[in-house]
Write a structure and sequence with these properties.
Pfam families: BLH_phosphatase, Pyr_redox_2. This protein has 526 residues and is of the alpha/beta class. 26% of the residues lie in helices and 24% in strands. It contains 13 helices and 28 strands. Strands 6, 7, 10, 11, 12, 13 and 24 form a 7-stranded mixed beta sheet that branches. A 5-stranded mixed beta sheet has the order 1-2-5-3-4, sandwiched between helices. It has a 5-stranded parallel beta sheet with strand order 15-22-16-17-18, with helices on one face.
Length: 526
């Protein structure tokens, strides 16, 4: 093999190492090999995966910290320092000539001991998108150093709250401790992010600590803006006001439906974007079906106030939904936005009308199911990552930020036009994982996302209209139409949501198992 040059007592460098050199490296007394070359830098160069496999066969630890430029950036020095802190000593590092590895070592050793902790990947958010992405990353490269920044100690399966509100699920089945779902190889930082410093590849935490990264994944979800509706926060959970959008309130929905008497029930939907565009209707249909079964529906005046102009954003599913609007006798009022609630008086206020003439209409109620306005989290909206919408800017296909090539976003926080659903995050997570690994290897994004989202519209207990679609409303069914035709109510779709999706979520999606979610190369996206 090439000449080995000692740089420090436990660190040496050499030019290019090849798989067949590993026995000689072991014989020379080294315990670890560190590759500082990006794959494909020159013809005939062995890639890092082959080198890592050969190293592991000889009992050597192996890490890949690729740096393309001879000018060492702060993030490169921090990544090198993190690798040197983790690897068994002595370490042999290599690049094309050894000079780059030497410069990286010098820069890493010049960092203060109090410098930011550095990880290969930092993920902001421990919800479905963040955990699934971490699991997909570790499935592909188990030796990555990953930190997940998440202040909450509870993780929720939010799609289950519709069925909690209908009395189908026990609320406890929709929650786990964060420790239960956190990937074992990931480091959980139980804090909140206060600021992003993408030019320095670091984030600041609430306690002032800095965390550095080689790649950043942003997935903190969105903010339910209950305070945007005057009078709403103080009456939630009483006076007949409820919402399936909160864990503690979904059981109250079921209580109100079970105890309903003749009167008026209002269901609301705010302007887009919101989590699962069909969820406001799901609560309404399931409530109506319960009242229908008990012979109460004729005595209950049901109104659906939607701030949008249409019943559903994808026209193919509207005919099936309109059948249920008519069956249940629902008064559908498009262009009607909830702007205030007087809980004690049981009166809701709605803004109605076009751009030119708007009026405020008051509607008394006995039950009010509210879906709050939804916006990007405050620390995202005030950050350099956000676009004009307040959500994180990202390429719709690669989910990479348009300015910082080592920064990706997924889930509800990303400023793309797909539906904000758990099913979308399930499809996005492997795409981001593949593209993050490409960024770590100095490559361009490899995988593409087609905008897939799914909304199982529970039109009655036992039947679902399974809406599956991508960018531009293109239908993207997962099953052949002879099995499940998403444009028609289906018992099999109900079985999928009721029995299959919860275990798929807990034991599949959050564990890096990508059933029906294999990432596609960019050129093969549907």
């Amino acid at each position: 093999m090439e000449t080995i040059t000692p740089i420090a007592p436990d660190f040496s460098v050499s030019p290019q190492v090849r798989p067949e050199d590993m026995p000689a490296i072991v014989a020379a007394g080294f315990r670890s090999v560190l590759c500082n070359r990006p794959d494909g830098e020159e013809p005939g160069q062995p890639d890092a995966a082959a080198l890592g496999h050969a190293a592991l066969e000889q009992g050597l630890a192996f890490m890949h910290v690729p740096v393309a430029s001879p000018d060492i950036a702060p993030a490169d020095a921090q990544a090198m320092r993190a690798a040197l802190d983790r690897l068994p000593k002595p370490v042999l590092a290599f690049c094309r000539s050894g000079a780059r590895s030497t410069a990286l070592h010098n820069a890493a050793m010049a960092l203060n001991d109090n410098s930011a902790a550095t990880y290969d990947v930092v993920i902001v958010g421990g919800g479905s998108a963040g955990i699934a992405c971490a699991a997909s990353l570790l499935k592909r490269r188990g030796d990555l150093s990953i930190a997940i920044i998440e202040p909450s100690d509870v993780h929720y399966y939010q799609p289950g709250w519709t069925l909690v509100g209908a009395g189908v699920f026990d609320p406890q089945t929709t929650r786990r401790t964060m420790g239960e779902v956190m990937p074992r190889k990931a480091h959980w930082i139980r804090q909140a992010v206060s600021a992003f410093h993408p030019d320095n590849s670091s984030v600041a935490l609430d306690d002032g600590t800095m965390v550095a990264y080689r790649a950043l994944v942003v997935a903190p979800g969105l903010k339910l803006d209950w305070d945007a509706i005057p009078g709403l926060p103080e009456t939630l959970g009483r006076n007949g006001v409820t919402s399936n959008y909160r864990y503690d309130l979904a059981p109250y929905t079921h209580e109100l439906v079970r105890s309903a008497a003749p009167g008026r029930a209002l269901f609301t939907q705010p302007p887009m974007p919101i989590k699962c565009a069909g969820a406001p209707q799901k609560a309404m249909y399931l409530s109506c079906h319960e009242w229908e079964k008990r012979g109460l529906l004729e005595g209950i005046d049901v109104e659906f106030h939607s701030a949008g102009p249409a019943l559903f954003g994808v026209a193919d599913y509207v005919p099936a939904l309109m059948t249920y609007i008519e069956r249940y006798g629902i008064d559908f009022r498009p262009g009607s936005k909830l702007v205030g609630v007087d809980g004690a008086a049981r009166v809701a206020r709605f803004e109605q009308g076009g751009d030119g003439e708007k009026t405020v209409v008051e509607r008394p109620f006995d039950m009010l199911h509210v879906v709050p306005p939804q916006v990007a989290p405050d620390f995202i909206r005030s950050s350099p990552l956000a676009d004009e919408s307040g959500f994180v800017a990202a390429d719709p296909a690669t989910l990479r930020h348009p300015i910082w090539s080592n920064l990706f976003a997924l889930g509800d926080v990303v400023a793309t036009t797909n539906a904000k659903t758990a099913a979308a995050a399930r499809k996005q997570a492997p795409v981001v994982a593949v593209n993050v690994l490409a960024a770590l290897d100095g490559k361009q994004p490899q995988a593409g996302y087609d905008g897939y989202g799914s909304c199982p519209l529970t039109v009655e207990r036992g039947r679902i209209v399974l809406a599956e679609f991508g960018y531009g409303g293109k239908l993207l069914p997962s099953f052949p139409t002879w099995l499940i035709d998403g444009r028609r109510p289906s018992r099999l779709a109900w079985f999928l949501k009721d029995r299959m999706l919860p275990p798929i979520y807990w034991h599949g999606m959050l564990k890096g198992r990508e059933w029906l979610a294999d990432p596609r190369p960019i050129g093969q996206v549907r």
